[in-house]
UniProtKB/TrEMBL annotation:
InterPro entries named among the record's database cross-references: NAD(P)-bd_dom_sf (IPR036291)
Lineage: Eukaryota, Fungi, Dikarya, Basidiomycota, Agaricomycotina
Domain of life: Eukaryota
Name of the protein this chain belongs to: Uncharacterized protein
């Protein structure tokens, strides 16, 4: 299967070494990361703020993350990114706590022939009913996309199925990305996911 927007010939459905969050080149140590729509494996950061609509689901996820990543501070906030009031309340809270967000990860749900495997989705749809993508793929891709390695993609829409090695090696893609409003500042990195 290919991506709806095919920039690379390789189509990933699982994580791979170039996007591994354990790579020293991809560390987010000392950074605060804000993730909407659920958790991602950005636990190399000092602080991760996870925003979602259901408070109970957020707390359940963060309990697991806190047990696994003991040196990372996790903050959950209930909110709906589709609501202006909710977003205003979130940023007012962050400001009141003097929290500066270094990386913003906007997760968006997308269901196609392949869907993201999670325990909740498997309960709803059944484990054998779909061709599942690994949960680690978008999580690990988000680590790479927020790193200096991906600076030319900051502030752009990207697809986790794309192969990052091919993106870096393709001279045509690199030419298209040069000098077109790319955010190189670490305080303005934004990764969008579909």
């Amino acid at each position: 299967m290919s991506s709806p927007v095919a920039l690379t010939t390789t189509y990933h459905t699982d994580t791979y070494p170039a996007i591994s969050p354990t790579s020293p080149a991809l560390t987010q140590f000392g950074e605060t990361i804000l993730i909407t729509g659920g958790a991602a494996e950005l636990a190399s950061a000092s602080r991760i703020i996870i925003v979602g609509r259901r408070d109970a689901s957020l707390e359940e996820s963060v309990v697991k993350l806190r047990n696994e990543f003991k040196t990372t501070e996790f903050i959950t906030r209930q909110g709906d990114i589709g609501s202006d009031d909710s977003i205003t309340f979130l940023w007012e809270f962050l400001h009141s706590q003097n929290i500066f967000v270094h990386v913003l990860v906007l997760n968006a749900a997308y269901v196609s022939e392949r869907i993201l495997y999670s325990e909740g989705a498997a309960k709803l749809f059944g484990k054998s009913g779909f061709k599942w993508d690994s949960f680690a793929l978008p999580a690990d891709f988000s680590v790479w996309a927020a790193s200096p390695e991906a600076y030319r993609l900051h502030g752009r829409y990207v697809w986790p199925h794309w192969d990052v090695n091919e993106l870096r090696a393709d001279s045509d893609i690199q030419k298209q990305l040069q000098g077109k409003g790319v955010h190189e500042s670490r305080s303005r990195r934004i990764a969008y996911f579909r």
